[in-house]
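Re: that chain you flagged

S.,

Sorry for the slow reply, it's been a week of failed gels. I finally had a moment to sit down with the sequence you sent. For the record, here it is as I used it:
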Amino acid sequence: MSSACHSSNRRPRTLVTGAARRVGLAVACEFARRGHDLVMLVRALDARAEEAADAVRAASGGAATVEIRACDLDDSEAVSSLGASLMDGPIDALVHCAARYESQPIGQIDPGTALSHYRVNALAPLMLAQALRGALTSSVLPGGGAIVLFSDMHTQGRFYRGHASYFASKGAVDALVGALAVELAPKVRVNGIAPGVVAWPVDADEGFKARYLARTPLGRAGTPAEAAACAAWLAIDAHFVNGEIIRVDGGRWLGTSSSE
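Prediction finished late last night. Pasting the structure tokens below so you have them in one place:
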């Protein structure tokens, strides 16, 4: 039985960005499992996106209606057009998982990359929240509409070298959680998740992994499914939680900062 109890005959409908892979796909599957229809925002309509949509349908037992939308979140005009195209339909929750993560040490940072980090990681969810505020305000979820933004636990004070422009964009996400939580209340709640490693960077070598886990009290990396469960709890169950950023990091925050 679905755990998504609501006051309307229609199913809740959630928009997930970055939904074709990794954490975004896990989030889409978790919301589908909990009784939601999905709008999966992906970078391209390709075989990977279709396979992801099949996985989401399977997670719902075939019950979910799944729509795939393609949008380059680095293109602000495309994001605005996407938001406008979704304004007239129901959207009960927005979960922003898509992110750009690229290393550029001080001395090698170019404005284009820094702006791209900001546009994808912070500006895109801001513009989507603005476009969808009317739909979110009319949510059928018992706790009202919900927005969940993914930040990064390192941005809260465990910085490492080579990622200043990325961290600046995620710092903007942290500020956005609070600003939107105030501005969209009481009809819409806005919260964040600050993960540690819940999916290793594709370029992470074994040495990096070992050093990272040595500073993580639980001694392991998290999983996309664990991050997805937190996102679903914030959006569906946490009716009196607003403006919070929850670290999902296995206690990594309690470790010491380092150059890695």
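What I noticed first: The chain has one domain: 13-253.

Talk soon,
D.
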